[in-house]
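Thread title: Can someone regenerate the structure for this chain?

I was given the following input by a collaborator and told the matching structure tokens would be attached. They weren't. Posting the sequence so someone can regenerate them.
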Amino acid sequence: MKISRKILKFTEPLTYRRGWRRAQRSIFRVPLEPMLAQIDPERARRNPAVLWNSTAGYAKYANIEPWLRLNRERVQDLEPSSLNAETCPRPGVRRRILLFILKNLGHSVLGLDVERVPLFGELLELFGVERVVYKIDAFEPLPDFGQQFDWITAFSANFYLYHPAKKRWGTSEWDFFLRDLQHHLAPGGKVFFGLNPSYNGDYYTPEIHDLFRSRGADVERERIFFENGLRF
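Best answer:
Regenerated them for you:
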């Protein structure tokens, strides 16, 4: 039975798509050493000792290197052909990407986050990444950033869950959010969400899946990718 399941996996398109992404990572390499060299080693050693007292479940992020490796994969998966700002398809344009690791590859970045977890603020300061403190709520527009972005990303996102009611956004909340997000997206810009599962283990209802697709997304389990922007 186990062998049959493994064989069946090779017939699924998802298996080939994930395999192709792994192959791309091996071609478009991103060395971590130059990034680690930009981090103040004294602060990096000092911060974990203080931050291990952070809220349970968050202290693990004080161990920097494994998360750099994970984010390197995310960057490679999204756009391996333009990882370096000096070799972007549009020369001279430094992409504004909401993904902190790209700052070390020459891109202009901006983070958006809540302030209730001190660890996150400490790490952003350690990396020298600019941040806007803001909590995303249903039917509330995002703040004015004074600029538009070529890339808007959110990884391990759960802003679409109502706490502590354990209820997730419906199609109305998501549609409002996507329409508002369009105002912050530059022409030709892209949007990527890496969703966390909700409390019952799935990522979205069939109705939300259909909404993502209708707005132009490629939906692959937790990966929601608007490669050609948002469609209305």
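Confidence is low (pLDDT under 50) at residues 49-54, 87-98.
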